Amino acid sequence: GQNIDQPTEMTATEGAIVQINCTYQTSGFNGLFWYQQHAGEAPTFLSYNVLDGLEEKGRFSSFLSRSKGYSYLLLKELQMKDSASYLCVVMDSNYQLIWGAGTKLIIKP
Amino acid sequence: GAVVSQHPSRVICKSGTSVKIECRSLDFQATTMFWYRQFPKQSLMLMATSNEGSKATYEQGVEKDKFLINHASLTLSTLTVTSAHPEDSSFYICSARDRNRGDTGELFFGEGSRLTVL
Questions:
Q1: Could you tell me which of A10, A49, A74, A109 has the fewest CB atoms within 10 Å of its CB?
Q2: What is the CA radius of gyration of chain B?
Q3: Parallel, antiparallel, or unpaired for β A103-108 and A9-13?
Q4: Distance to chain B for A101, nearest Cα, Å
Q5: Low-confidence ranges of chain B (pLDDT < 70)
Q6: At CB < 8 Å, which residues of chain A contact B?
Q7: Smallest Cβ distance to B106: which of A37, A45, A50?
């Protein structure tokens, strides 16, 4: 079956760095997305990785290792507004999106 | 950037009535649109994939006759919740894929529609 695993909840301190991990087992692979979702709102796109390595975009970076079925989202200089759920999404060989359950990130002052 | 507009954002209806939710891509053509529902504190659940000009593909467990999806044009998909009941109360979100970006791009999400059935 197809499966995406990510921690249910994480807590971090304002100004610090946090890494949210995602492991996946899917039928083929055509890319991995990270989305941010604030409570009661629609998700917003953060990153897309299809090749191995690190993609940096401002305070956010995303890493992919296809051989390990592993990705992480790295958030630096955490701000209170970063408190949200972070969704790991994999596109399989049929271009279907497989959604992780999301990681709720709580930022404390 | 690409914009997806969803309407209405909030709707309250009586049990037994039908509710239509619209999802429009404002500045791009979307050959594929996705409909999700989300219960409080839970992840998005894909309900169906809507392709322009053809029947929607429903996920297992989603009633086709209850959740009618129409994708009549490249910029509009509608979800109709027929004979709504209180258990249908949820947050419904649509997303669209830009046909010009192929399968390498992101999904663009509507703002979501909160349905409350009394």
A1: A109
A2: 14
A3: parallel
A4: 5
A5: 1, 41-43, 99, 101-106
A6: 30-31, 33, 37, 40-45, 48, 50, 85, 87, 91, 95, 97, 99-102
A7: A45
Residues shown for chain B: 118
Residue closest to A99 by CA, chosen among B109, B77, B14, B9:
B109
Report CB contact under 8 Å: B34, A101: no
Dihedral (CA of A77, A81, A86, A91) sign: negative
Cα dist from A26 to A3, A30, B32, whole Å: 6, 10, 22
Look-up of token digits 């992919």: A64
Residue in this structure with the two tokens 């027929």, named with its chain if needed: B82
Q: What was the pLDDT predicted at B118? A: 95
Sign for the pseudo-dihedral over CA of B34, A83, A8, B103? positive
What would the two tokens of residue A10 be?
A: 């994480």
Query: Which of A33, A37, A100 shows the shortest C-beta gap to B106?
Result: A33
Residues of A in contact with B34 (CB under 8 A): 97
CA atoms within 13 A on the CB side of B13: 24
Q: Which pairing describes strands A32-37 and A44-49: parallel, antiparallel, or unpaired?
A: antiparallel
Beta strand A32-37 with A84-91 is antiparallel
Could you say which residues of chain A have pLDDT below 50? none
Check: CB of residue A60 under 8 Å from CB of residue A45.
no
Residue B103 is nearest to which of A37, A45, A95, comparing CB atoms? A95
Longest pairwise C-alpha distance within chain A = 43
Radius of gyration over every alpha carbon of chain A, rounded to an integer in angstroms: 13
